Amino acid sequence: MNSGEFVFSNHATESLKAIIEDLQQVSLLSAEKVRSRIMHKLHLIQHQPMPSSKKVEAGLSQHIRVAAVLNYKIFYMVEESRISVLEILLDKEAKNV
Question: What is the C-alpha to C-alpha distance for residues 57 and 91, in angstroms, rounded to an integer?
Fold first, then answer.
């Protein structure tokens, strides 16, 4: 798969907004850095969805994968003609970068 349709779930959109808004209250520069790094990772996922990610073993028939960027995890599903971003979460176990 290469450069298929790329869609965000409502939940992923709201999560990304909340992450950035929370960071903006501390530092505009940090918020922009995180936003930029997440968007770069999403760009890489769009063009090559399998490298640098792990398949989530949840007993589901879909191919749900997770990729890490800074201390966030991006959960997405790879389908034939599109990639759906399901959720973006803070990884509380990740070391701060």
Answer: 18
Distance CA 64, CA 61 (A): 9
The Cα–Cα gap between 89 and 12 comes to 9
Torsion of CA 58, 61, 67, 73, to 10 degrees: -50
Q: What is the DSSP letter of 73?
A: E
DSSP 52: T
| pLDDT tens for each residue of the chain, 97 residues long | 455 688 999 999 999 999 999 999 999 999 999 999 999 999 988 888 776 667 776 555 567 899 999 999 999 988 878 899 999 999 877 655 4
CATH class of 5-90: alpha beta
Q: Distance from CA of residue 79 to its chain's centroid?
A: 16
d(CA 8, CA 5): 10
